[in-house]
Amino acid sequence: MEKKITSLRLPAAMNEEIEVLMESGEYASKSDLLKDAFRVFLENKPEKKTLIGIEMYRRGRVSLARAAEIAGMDFESFKEVLTDRGISIRTASPTKKELEEEIKYLGML
User: Fold this and answer.
1) pTM here?
2) pLDDT in tens, 72-104
3) DSSP states along 34-58
4) What ranges do the domains of the chain cover?
């Protein structure tokens, strides 16, 4: 699984709050805290999950079925969303590269 380093600039007060959570043992690392925050963000803004699924599919990074799963939608509803947004549904079999990319992406979860 490939990992990337992400740099964030946060207000001093927020950095202090993060440090308190770390020092209290609530989180083992800033990475764990960020993953938890992102999970909660997506739970509270399901439209963002839909956007991620659409964009991952549009860019050819995942299959239609995987995109629907990312979006938290059933297959047919997701197809309707794509159609409503004017995004064509690919019907060809995925290439070897597409399959490798999807496997790589799934390994990152």
Assistant:
1) 0.71
2) 999 999 999 999 999 999 876 677 887 888 888
3) HHHHHHHHHHH-HHHHHHHHHHHHH
4) 12-44, 46-107
